[in-house]
Amino acid sequence: MSEIRKLGFSRPTEGEILVQLAGSWRIGQELPSESDVQTQLKSGPPIQRIGFDSRELTGWDTGLLSFLIKVLEHCSTAKIEVEKDGLPEGVQRLIALATAVPEKKDAKQQGERPSFLARVGEDAIVFVKSAGELITFLGEACVVVARLLTGKVRFRLSDLGLFLQESGAQALPIVSLISLLVGLILAFVGIIQLKLFGAQIYVADLVGIAMVREMGAIMTGIVMAGRTGAAFAAQLGTMEVNEEIDALKTLGIPPMEFLVLPRMLSLTLMMPLLCLYANLMGILGGAAVAVGVYGVNPILYFNRTREAVGLNDLGIGLFMSVVFGVLVALAGCLRGMQCGRSASAVGGAATSAVVTGIVAIIVATAIITVMCDVIGI
């Protein structure tokens, strides 16, 4: 069938053109080009409307659809009105489906910016909602711990062993590095000032008390918040995205017992041990500066450290490490359980867990320090 029979044009009225489709329009056959339509639109008086006549059309497939879509795109660019009533009903449905663009959620911009009071109200609502979720989570955690003491919880010991390894042995390299560097820094800062008075030996007091009482627990807590707390949030967040937590609830398995409790136990048990290790590395770092750089007698340095650091200092540091372990574990698990249903939400949950854990550590440090001062220890 020749091109003349497949495609024809007529002008019923001024400013209107009628495209006549005839014959078979199938892929593999020689089909007219949309440039023929563009040539007709540009010739003669300006065209405001285009229509179609398909009464002599004997067959069609995607070859006709491709031709029509290109014509429609050109008409849309040239702002020409298109009448599709003359096309077969099936062609009209497919064109509508191909050209349909779903409206994106929140794509429309609000015409007016919310007022200051409206923004304050929205933030207050979000804060109250977050506070309620936090209190609920803490209450559930307390209930789970109480059930643990009565032996009524359900979780796998293999999971607990895995989390103990992740929270303990695998964290030793980074804890070693950070604690050693903190001891070095404390020793350098202290000994420069003490050297002015000829009291370099008292750098042992400074490093020992600072590491055992405060810095060992704080630096270990911050490291674990960035390492283990974020990992807990990412793990639980991924499970939330994959609907694994919903599956556990459907099976009647409480996620707080099966998922949160082993993680909280592992970090709470490992933090005091990591804190002791961090204290040792910090003291060794201070000794490296005092002995290796400033020539302090090593035996005198360690004897002075032993005299300066008391059991009260060690107990306070270990108590802080236990508190930090609980806070970091709760922060990671809370943000993981609050994770949304998208991949980006998992990253947001991990970031939020780190921030929440570090803020909780700093606040807890301030509270414990004030309490120790009040008690006199």
Short characterization:
With 377 residues, the chain is α/β, with parallel strands linked by helices. 70% of the residues lie in helices and 7% in strands.
Description of the molecule:
The chain has 377 residues and is an alpha/beta fold. The protein folds into 2 domains: 3-99, Transcription Regulator spoIIAA, CATH 3.30.750.24; 141-375, no CATH class. It has 13 helices and 4 strands. It is elongated. The N and C termini lie far apart (102 Å). The relative contact order is 0.09. The mean pLDDT is 84.
Question: What would the keywords be for this entry?
Answer:
about 375 residues, 4-stranded mixed β-sheet, alpha/beta, 13 helices, 2 domains, Transcription Regulator spoIIAA
| Radius of gyration, in angstroms, nearest whole number | 37 Å
Please give the largest β-sheet.
4 strands, mixed
Order of helices and strands: HEEHEHEHHHHHHHHHH
Described by the principal axes of the CA atoms, the overall outline is elongated
| Poorly predicted tracts of residues | none
Mean pLDDT: 84
| Number of E-state strands | 4
Strand content range: 5-15%
> What structural category arises from helix and sheet content?
alpha/beta
Note the total helix count: 13
- Helical content stands at 55-70%
Strand order of the largest sheet: 1-2-3-4
What's the structural domain tally? 2
Q: Ends: how far apart?
A: 102 Å
